[in-house]
Specification:
This protein has a two-stranded antiparallel sheet. Helix content is 37%, strand content 1%. The protein starts with a helix and ends in a 15-residue tail after the last helix. The protein is mainly alpha-helical and 319 residues long. The longest helix is centred in the N-terminal third of the chain and has 15 residues. It has 19 helices and 2 strands. The chain is elongated. The chain binds heme C (10 copies).
Length: 319
C-alpha cells in the first residue's frame, strides 16, 4: 500500500519536467497555456520585478533553519514554476509578499503568519496551490475544515519529522491525538491491523474530506472502499445475497474492530442470520425453512451456506 502511495507521485515528478503539475494547473492553467505558445515575459512579471529580490536565498541570510527545512521539502519545486510569478514561488508562496519585511525586518505585519492565522485562512492559503486534484476537491468543507482542523494540524512545512507528506506525526498516532476512542477499537480482538501498520486510516478515509459521509473514500457507496482490498466480495454474482449489495458490509460487520470473530456485529453467526431470516420479522428475507430443526440451529449457518457474500453456483450459497 505504501508502494502504491509513493508510485502515485512518480508521474507528478516527471510532470514537473514539463513544468506542469496538477496543483499549478488549477491556479495558472490559462497562463501556462499562453506561455507555452510563446510570450515569455508577461507584463505582470515585469511589474513584480520592481520589488526587492525575495528569493529564498535572500531569506536564508536570517532564517537559516526555515530555509533548510524548506529546501529539503518538495516545496522547493515551486521555484521551477516560471509562469505564476515570484509571489507563488519559494517562501512567498506561503508567507505572501515579503517586500515590506525585507525593507524593515522587524515589520512582519504584511506577512502571512501561520501561528496567528485562523484555520480557515490557513486552509485557503495552502489550497491556493493544492485544490487542483481529486484528493483535495472537498477540502474546504470537509468535516475537518468545518470543525476548525486546518492543514497545519497535520502538516508542518518546517518542523515535520516524517519522511513523507510533511506530517507532524506518523499514522495512526497522528489520528489518535484527536480520535483517541478509535485506538481502543483497533485494540479489540478482531480488527483491521492499523496499529500494526498493515492498514492505514487513510486507506479508508480521506482526511481532506469526501463527497459522502464520515470522510470515507469513494463513499458514494461506502462499500467501494472495502472492495479495494476485498475484491473477491465484489462480484457481480449470479446469486447475490441481498444485504451485501443493498445494506452494505456494515449490516453485518464493524469496520474498525470488535470482540467477535470476522468482525461480525453480533457474537454468534446464527443470531446474525436470524435477525433477518425469521418468519416473524418484517424483513424481505425468507425465514429459515422448517427442516432447519434444532440440530441445524446448533450448527453455524455458514457451515452449509458457505458463500455468504454471494455465489455463482448456488442460490442458497452452498458453494
Ligand atoms: C535581515 C534579516 C531578515 C531577512 C533577510 C528576512 N527576515 Fe524574516 N524575520 C526577521 C526577523 C528579525 C524577524 C522577527 C521579527 C519580529 O518578530 O519582530 C522575522 C520574522 C519573519 C517571519 C514571522 C515569524 C513569526 O511567526 O513571527 C516570517 C514568516 C519571515 N520572517 C519570513 C521571511 C521571508 C519569507 C524572508 C525572505 C523574503 C525573510 N523573512 C527575510 C529577519 C529577516
Ligand atoms: C508550504 C508553505 C510554506 C513555505 C513554502 C514556507 N513556509 Fe515558513 N511557515 C509555514 C508554516 C505552516 C509555518 C508555521 C510552522 C510550521 O507549521 O512549520 C511557518 C513558519 C515560519 C517561520 C516562523 C518560525 C517557525 O519556524 O515556526 C518563519 C521565520 C518562516 N516560516 C520562514 C520561512 C522562510 C524563510 C521560507 C522560505 C525558505 C518559508 N518559511 C517557506 C509555511 C511555509
Ligand atoms: C487530519 C489530518 C490532515 C489534515 C487536516 C490535512 N491533511 Fe493533508 N494529508 C494527511 C495525511 C495523513 C496525508 C498522507 C497521505 C495519505 O495517506 O493519504 C496527507 C497528504 C497530503 C498531501 C500529499 C498527498 C496527496 O495525495 O496530494 C498534500 C498535498 C496535502 N496532504 C495537503 C493538505 C492541505 C493543503 C490541507 C489543508 C487544506 C491538508 N492536507 C489537511 C493528513 C491531513
Ligand atoms: C505556492 C504553491 C504552494 C503552496 C501555497 C503550498 N504548497 Fe504544498 N506543494 C506545492 C508543490 C509544488 C508541491 C510538490 C508537488 C510534487 O512533488 O509534485 C507541494 C507538496 C506538498 C505536500 C506533499 C509532500 C510530500 O512529501 O509529498 C504536502 C503535504 C504539502 N505540499 C502541504 C502543504 C501545506 C500544508 C501548505 C500550506 C501550509 C502548502 N502545501 C502550501 C505547492 C504549494
Ligand atoms: C487536530 C485534531 C484532529 C486530528 C489530528 C485528526 N482529526 Fe479527524 N476529526 C477531528 C474533529 C474535531 C472532527 C469532527 C468532530 C468529530 O466527528 O469527532 C473529526 C472528524 C473526523 C472524521 C469524520 C467523523 C464523522 O462523524 O463524520 C473522520 C473519519 C476522521 N476525523 C478521521 C481522521 C483521520 C483518519 C485522521 C488522521 C489522518 C484524523 N481524523 C486526524 C479532529 C482531528
Ligand atoms: C477498513 C477501513 C477503515 C479503516 C482502516 C479506518 N476506518 Fe474509520 N471508518 C470506516 C468506515 C466505513 C466508517 C463509516 C462507518 C459507518 O458509516 O457506519 C468509519 C467511521 C469512522 C469515524 C466516524 C464514526 C465513528 O466511528 O466515530 C471516525 C472518527 C473514524 N472512522 C476514524 C478512523 C481512524 C482515526 C482510523 C485509523 C486509526 C480509521 N477510522 C480507520 C472505515 C475505516
Ligand atoms: C449478511 C451478512 C454479511 C454481509 C452483508 C457481509 N458479510 Fe462478510 N462475513 C459474514 C459472515 C457471517 C462471515 C463469516 C463467515 C464464516 O463464518 O465462515 C463473513 C466473513 C467475512 C470475511 C472473512 C472471511 C472471508 O470470506 O474472507 C471478510 C474479509 C468479509 N466478510 C468481508 C466483507 C465485506 C468486504 C463485505 C461488504 C462487501 C461483507 N463482508 C458483507 C457476513 C456478511
Ligand atoms: C487497505 C486494505 C483494506 C481495506 C480498504 C479494507 N480491508 Fe478489511 N481487511 C484487510 C486485511 C489485510 C485483512 C486481514 C486481517 C488481518 O489479518 O489483519 C482484513 C480483514 C477484514 C475482515 C475480517 C476477516 C476475518 O476473517 O477476521 C473483515 C470482516 C473485513 N476486513 C471487512 C472490511 C470492510 C467491511 C471494509 C470496508 C469498510 C474493509 N474490510 C476494508 C484489508 C482491508
Ligand atoms: C440484514 C438482513 C440479512 C442478514 C443479516 C442475512 N440475510 Fe440472508 N438474505 C436476506 C435477504 C433480504 C435475502 C434475499 C431474499 C430474496 O431474494 O427474496 C437473503 C437471502 C438469503 C438466502 C437465499 C434465499 C433464497 O431463497 O434464495 C440464504 C440461503 C440466506 N440469505 C442465508 C443467510 C445466512 C446463512 C445468513 C447469516 C450468515 C444471512 N442470510 C444473513 C437478508 C439477510
Ligand atoms: C446442515 C446444513 C444447513 C445448515 C447448518 C443451515 N442450513 Fe439453511 N438450508 C439448508 C438446505 C439444505 C436448504 C435448502 C436448499 C434448497 O432448497 O436448495 C437451506 C435453505 C435455507 C434458506 C432458504 C429458504 C428459502 O425459502 O429459500 C434460508 C433462508 C436458510 N437456509 C437459512 C439458514 C439459517 C439462518 C441457518 C442458521 C440458523 C441455516 N440456514 C443453517 C441447509 C442448512
Amino acid at each position: 500500500m505504501r508502494n502504491f502511495a509513493s508510485s502515485r507521485f512518480l508521474p507528478l515528478f516527471f510532470g514537473l519536467a514539463v513544468l506542469t503539475t496538477p496543483c499549478w494547473a488549477a491556479q495558472s492553467g490559462a497562463a501556462a497555456q499562453s506561455v507555452s505558445k510563446a510570450s515569455p515575459a508577461p507584463a505582470k512579471t515585469a511589474a513584480t520585478t520592481a520589488k526587492p529580490d525575495a528569493s529564498p536565498e535572500v531569506c536564508k541570510g536570517c532564517h537559516v533553519a526555515e530555509y533548510g527545512s524548506w529546501e529539503k521539502s518538495p516545496h522547493w519545486k515551486t521555484t521551477l514554476n516560471k509562469t505564476a510569478g515570484p509571489l507563488h514561488q519559494g517562501c512567498q508562496g506561503c508567507h505572501g509578499d515579503a517586500a515590506a519585511h525585507l525593507a524593515d525586518p522587524t515589520d512582519t505585519s504584511k506577512l502571512f503568519k501561520f501561528e496567528t492565522a485562523t484555520p480557515k485562512e490557513i486552509n485557503n492559503q495552502c489550497l491556493a496551490c493544492h485544490s487542483g486534484d481529486m484528493e483535495h476537491a472537498h477540502a474546504l468543507n470537509s468535516v475537518h475544515a468545518k470543525n476548525g482542523v486546518s492543514c497545519t494540524a497535520c502538516h508542518s512545512p518546517h518542523h515535520s519529522t516524517q519522511p513523507e507528506f510533511l506530517l507532524v506525526k506518523a499514522q495512526p498516532e497522528l489520528c489518535y491525538t484527536c480520535h483517541l476512542a478509535k485506538k481502543a477499537e483497533f485494540a479489540m480482538p478482531f480488527h483491521h491491523r492499523v496499529n500494526e501498520g498493515l492498514v492505514q486510516c487513510t486507506d479508508c478515509h480521506n482526511p481532506h474530506g469526501t463527497e459522502g459521509p464520515k470522510q470515507v473514500r469513494m463513499a458514494s457507496t461506502q462499500d467501494q472502499v472495502c472492495y479495494k482490498c476485498h475484491i473477491d466480495k465484489e462480484g457481480p454474482f449470479v446469486y447475490e445475497h441481498a444485504p451485501v449489495k443493498v445494506d452494505g458490509c456494515t449490516s453485518c460487520h464493524v469496520v474498525h474492530g470488535g470482540p467477535n470473530p470476522h468482525m461480525l456485529k453480533v457474537s454468534n453467526v446464527n443470531l446474525l442470520c436470524l435477525q433477518c431470516h425469521t418468519t416473524s420479522s418484517f424483513s424481505s428475507a425468507p425465514g429459515a425453512p422448517s427442516f432447519h430443526n434444532q440440530a441445524t440451529f446448533f450448527q453455524a449457518c455458514t457451515l452449509c451456506h458457505v458463500a455468504i457474500h454471494g455465489s455463482n453456483f448456488s442460490s442458497t450459497f452452498f458453494k
